Amino acid sequence: MITCEHITKSYNGRPAVRGITTRVERGEFVYLTGPSGAGKSTFLRLLYRAELPDSGVIIVNGVDLAQLRRRDVAEFRRHLGVVFQDFKLLRRRTVAENVTFVLSLLNFPEREQQRRAYLVLKQMGLQHRMHAYPDELSGGEQQRVAIARALVLQPDLILADEPSGNLDPERSHELLELLKTINYQGTTVVVATHDRGLIEAHPARTLFLDHGSVVADAWVTTT
Ligand SMILES: Nc1ncnc2c1ncn2[C@@H]1O[C@H](COP(=O)(O)OP(=O)(O)OP(=O)(O)O)[C@@H](O)[C@H]1O
Ligand SMILES: [Mg+2]
Fold this sequence. Notes:
binds adenosine-5'-triphosphate; 27% strand; alpha/beta; Rossmann fold; binds magnesium ion; six-stranded mixed sheet
């Protein structure tokens, strides 16, 4: 699903990602962890082609990102679900509209938009809040809307940056259960988190980043 070879990315001459080489197979669940500034978000941005690396090769879902033409980026992203740490919900649109927005951009028929929105919101336990606005929801509910939105295109790959960053511990655990369920259903999942306790509670393969490099790649268990 993901192949990276010697990828580097610097900002103003300071490396944020330096020489990452790794593979993630289809159907895997992988954490990305490490201290603040280690390069987790930068690495994720490179994977959904928000940025291009200075050097190295990135292949995601069979697409060589360096070869991807600008006009094909939208089609590439159709197969990805991205969950941002700060949700990035549209404040003036309802929960349902936030979820159908991407479908409307892609000209899905209205009825299909409604059907899909209902299904993913039900999966998140939010079907009763479809007509609420984001500001009327709790942080955890907003987080689940952001996930519903990432799932609505039935992506092959989910990239989530600190998805539990704004949630209390109980909600964080629920969220991880949810991502694990989605993973069992076949979606590849990559989660950036600095929350070691969360990883230990829901163990999986973990890439440890430090100063832009992968310093360990291991199955984390409680010690
Ligand atoms: N757009 C940018 N412009 C300049 N420097 C950046 C930019 N984005 C990231 N950096 C720098 O790159 C390095 C890695 O940042 P990144 O955000 O990837 O770390 P992170 O592991 O996600 O940290 P955190 O846990 O705090 O989210 C940091 O030194 C950061 O200051
Ligand atoms: Mg980050």
